[in-house]
Amino acid sequence: MTTQAIPREPQQDRSRATRQRLLEAAIDCLASVGWTGTTVAVVAERAGVSRGAAQHHFRTREELVTAAVEYGSDIRVDQMRERLYVLADERPATLEVLTLLGELYTSPLFRAALQLWVAASSDDQLRAQVVPMEARFGREAHRLTVEALGADESVPGVRETIQATLDLVRGLGLADLLTDDSARRDRLLRQWALTLDSALGRTP
Amino acid sequence: MTTQAIPREPQQDRSRATRQRLLEAAIDCLASVGWTGTTVAVVAERAGVSRGAAQHHFRTREELVTAAVEYGSDIRVDQMRERLYVLADERPATLEVLTLLGELYTSPLFRAALQLWVAASSDDQLRAQVVPMEARFGREAHRLTVEALGADESVPGVRETIQATLDLVRGLGLADLLTDDSARRDRLLRQWALTLDSALGRTP
Fold it and tell me: What is the DSSP code (8-state) at residue A159?
């Protein structure tokens, strides 16, 4: 072993960049035109990548979409973690945490993920890939929410209340699918913050 | 005008029965094979109706599916109303109401509606039909929940808490899409009943 730097491999970098462009274009495409309109060819064109290069990375729509939603989920969890760490000095207000969650579940990524879930609900092979991915994302979102709220899950009922909060924001994501639900969502989350403070014994 | 009975019109009855069979088959079909697999031809076959007769009632998939979800929503609201009226003698426990809502949002109808919402999210024409229908269903579900819980919406925050309850069960419906979530849902709703009793000042 030497300390000499390993020469960069431009081709590998290019390949990684191409893959990432395809994943990002796939999320945009799913969120805007839906599952039926999201094919490898359409995504390749949107990403400015040749169809051949795209198919080198992803042979099927299912492969591309699953990879895209996983990539996007990782990014959203990282963003959530970062933003919560910024708030960590001053203990974040419950409403700040809820607002972050509300954003997470109304983003283009949520819309893209929703397309994937719905497609997977009638496709066993796709479902087998999506279920463990969603379980992992769900655990991460739960853990981050517990940390952000400083909730003590050893207290009976706290775990279920945190879960209910995540199911609520998931429902809010669905409510935002066809119309802009942001004004109602803001009122609802302000009230939810009070309910949560009382249920968790948190001082507002 | 006479008091003589108007003769029944068997052809009209048959037509109505055919329409109803198509609507019910469309809900089953959407819930099991999804939007892409739900065509007028497939639904006609499932309903045991000729393709010509089916197309006499519904020219396009969009027409059929929208009518089916509307029909199913009306039936579910009626069922919910009936079941709540049965409970009305003894004031229903909060958990009973939540369990009813949980069933409503994990039924084949919810799955069918979800397929329609997701399709409408990238189809402006379909969206224009679905949005007022969903608004009407949402108002009905809200009104029934308020009645069932005997909630007083003139108290600040109560309206938002009822809305949150409905968004929560909608999120629970989504969580049940790919895996059987019933055990977690039961625990969560038991805890939510306690939170709701406290938030609404309801004695359990």
Answer: H
What integer best gives the mean pLDDT of chain A? 89
Q: Is the residue at A110 inside a domain?
A: yes
* A37, A127, A191: residue with CB nearest B161: A191
CA–CA dist A3, A89 (Å, integer): 39
CA A19 to each of CA A25, A52, A65, A114, B149: distance values in angstroms, whole numbers, following the listed order: 10, 13, 12, 22, 52
Angle between helices A182-200 and A94-104 (to 10 degrees): 130
Confidence of residue B201 (pLDDT cuts 50, 70, 90): confident
Closest residue in B to A131 (Cα–Cα): B178
Q: For residues B180-202, b (16+ Cβ closer than 10 Å) or e, as one string? A: ebeebbeebbebbbbbbbebbee
Host domain of residue A187: 66-200
Residue from B191, B198, B200, B202 whose CB has the most chain A CBs within 10 Å, to mutate? B191
Contact check, Cβ <8 Å, A122/B32:
yes
| Residues whose CB is less than 8 angstroms from the CB of residue B83 and which lie 6 or more positions away in sequence, other chains included | B100
Q: Kindly state whether residue B42 falls inside one of the protein's structural domains.
A: no
How far is A8 from chain B, CA to nearest CA, in Å?
42
Euclidean distance between CA atoms A61 and A41, whole angstroms:
9
pLDDT range class, residue A80, cuts 50, 70, 90: confident
Task: Please report the ipTM that was assigned to this predicted complex.
Answer: 0.88
Of the partner residues B34, B157, B169, the one whose CB lies closest to the CB of residue A122: B34
- At residue B49, φ and ψ (nearest 5 deg) are -120, 145
B68/chain A closest Cα distance in angstroms: 18
Q: How far is B4 from chain A (nearest CA, A)?
A: 50
Tell me how many domains chain A contains. Answer: 1
pLDDT digits (tens, 9 = 90+) for A165-195: 999 999 999 999 999 999 999 999 999 999 9
- The two structure tokens encoding residue A48: 């400015």
Neighbours of A78 (CB within 10 A): 11
Q: Cα separations (Å) of A161 from A37, A124, B168?
A: 38, 31, 11
Find the CATH number of the domain harbouring A71: 1.10.357
Contacts of B117 in chain A (CB under 8 A): 174, 177-178
Residue A25: how many CA atoms within 13 Å on its side-chain side?
22
